Amino acid sequence: MLIVGLTGGIGSGKSTVSRMFVAHGIPVIDADVISHNLTGPGGAALDRIRAIFGDEVITDEGALNRAVVRERVFERPELRRKLEGILHPLVRREMLRKVSATKGAYCILAVPLLIESNMTDLVDRILVVDADVSARIQRIKGRSGLDETTIRRIMSAQIDDATRRARADDIIRNDDDLEQLQTEVAALHRRYLELART
Ligand code: ADP
Questions:
Q1: For 68-92, what is each residue's pLDDT tens digit?
Q2: Whose CA is nearest to atom 21 of ligand 1?
Q3: 173: left (phi over 0), alpha (psi -120 to 50) or beta
Q4: Ligand 1 atom closest to residue 180's alpha carbon, by position in its atom list
Q5: How far is the CA of 136 from the centre of ligand 1 (A)?
Q6: pTM of this prediction?
């Protein structure tokens, strides 16, 4: 089965594009969902994360407090590496398990940090969603309660757009409206079906 890795900076439109592929009947395996499950109540990564960051990063419900962890790793990059050292191998293993249980012509692995976390070996092609930074900031503000400083800090922890684009096999520009995005996804869907046949 052809495996397409979908990535892009925060707010570029990955989740929106994912939903559009799902609407075409294509399975999307989402690293964020896996990561949330690993760090939700009873999640497989929680004990090891607690051992490094302490009880303060665990909510009363027994889940990882993502906002607190985000602050901690911004202040101390070595903690980010430790956190990723716990999470990334677990995410990778779970994605492989899900891929092997998936049927169809092709599937999508949606991984925000596909390139940063060296997971590109899991995929046959890299699809990058790209949009202007100012549009991305406006869209994220509309989607979540994050302020501009936090958004820019998250962006600065991701690779820059030019480096990401340079790794892409396919690029979706998401500067226009959702209808245009729909058209681009439909064209890529046809292309991937064709590639999967050859
Ligand atoms: P990502 O998953 O890359 O962080 P999202 O797909 O969640 O980005 O998009 C961020 C926000 O912008 C969402 O609220 C989404 O509905 C909106 N959005 C995405 N693409 C467009 C577009 N072309 N026009 C208008 N709003 C968009």
A1: 998 898 889 899 999 999 999 999 9
A2: 178
A3: beta
A4: 23
A5: 8
A6: 0.94
